[in-house]
Write a structure and sequence with these properties.
By secondary structure, this protein is mainly α. Among the domains are: 110 residues, Up-down Bundle (Receptor-associated Protein), CATH 1.20.81.30; 65 residues. Helix content is 78%, strand content 0%. It contains 13 helices and no strands. The longest helix has 47 residues. The protein is elongated.
């Protein structure tokens, strides 16, 4: 039996692609066990603080004064609290409702451009608009978070060394941490200043540190918090412990740079493979636009373009997992 209706064929292709993507996402969730070992060790420490009433069931800090803003689109957004957490990690005052409204605006704008300038039919235009509305703001926020955390991680060993020098000079821990907020640059100065502000508002050092660890969500800072927490419970030379941690973090950064250099060939190959179809499409359009225009105006060509972009995205996602390493 043959189907001549392009809309039916389009719906069938999108349904099949959706099922493939859902299967890949489920497999990634079931097989993504890289951080389970580290999370298990962290949960042992977090569990002790939860038993003391300092942490909630999800590891977040309990507070009687924090009131979470609500937005009428919360019911349509999956895990809005996680999205708010991502926005706070950028270090900028990006409100949840502004992010959602921006995503909707991008989706509408791109959908209209795809319909008017691209000549796509309504269904592909809507799909392209929704994809861009979800992807573009997410990538921008991810880039902001990555850039800020990279800068924080680079400065962090120097901040630990500054704390160690303060401890060796006889200053208390809180004063040594406060000196980091005064003498270092952003973003590390902002985060350590927030820790001191929380302590001045009545929180213990342990509570303020775990709140910052939840806000930053980086392994390096969690190592620092765990070192201080264990030292408070067991005693010992804190300056020596933090000095060793600074050495370990510098070695960790050097290992990351070494791995980055070794995987640069694979990344270059991924960039070439990913950009080659677009380059060839542009060259063919410049040489014979009438020949290439059929791909954009014919419904079957539009289906081929969308299907090709989806499968290219899956391939690039797999390549990125092969060339990126987590520590």
């Amino acid at each position: 039996m043959t189907v001549d209706n392009p809309t039916v064929v389009m719906i069938g292709i999108f349904t099949g692609v959706f099922l493939v993507l859902a299967t890949i996402a489920l497999a990634a969730g079931l097989l993504g066990n890289r951080q389970k070992a580290m999370q298990g060790r962290l949960q042992k420490v977090v569990g002790r603080h939860r038993n003391k009433g300092l942490l909630g069931e999800g590891g977040e800090k309990k507070s009687l004064f924090v009131k979470q803003e609500k937005f009428f689109l919360d019911q349509f957004v999956p895990r809005p609290d996680e999205l708010r957490k991502r926005l706070r990690r950028t270090g900028r005052k990006i409100e949840f409702k502004h992010y959602i409204l921006t995503s909707l605006a991008v989706a509408v704008f791109v959908g209209i451009l795809a319909r008017i300038l691209g000549g796509l039919s309504p269904v592909p235009s809507i799909m392209v608009g929704l994809a861009c509305g979800l992807a573009i703001p997410h990538m921008v926020v991810s880039s902001m978070i990555k850039r800020r955390l990279t800068k924080f991680t680079t400065q962090f060993p120097e901040a630990i060394d500054l704390i160690v020098r303060g401890l060796k000079a006889g200053l208390p821990v809180t004063e040594s941490i406060g000196s980091v907020g005064k003498e270092m640059q952003d973003p590390i100065a902002v985060e350590f200043t927030k820790i001191i502000d929380d302590i001045r508002l009545g929180k213990t050092l342990d509570e303020a540190l775990w709140k910052a660890a939840t806000r930053l969500d980086t392994p390096e800072f969690k190592f620092f918090v765990i070192s201080l927490s264990v030292q408070q419970e067991t005693g010992g030379n804190l300056a020596e412990t933090l000095g060793n941690l600074s050495t370990i973090l510098r070695g960790r950064s050097q290992l990351k740079l070494k791995v980055k250099a070794m995987s640069s060939e694979g990344k270059a190959s991924a960039y070439i493979i990913g950009s080659l179809p677009f380059i060839m499409c542009g060259l063919l359009a410049m040489l014979n636009f009438g020949y290439m225009s059929i791909l954009f105006t014919d419904p079957r060509g539009q289906i081929a373009i969308i299907g090709g972009l989806i499968w290219m995205g899956i391939g690039m996602f797999i390549i990125s997992k092969l060339i990126n390493f987590e520590f």
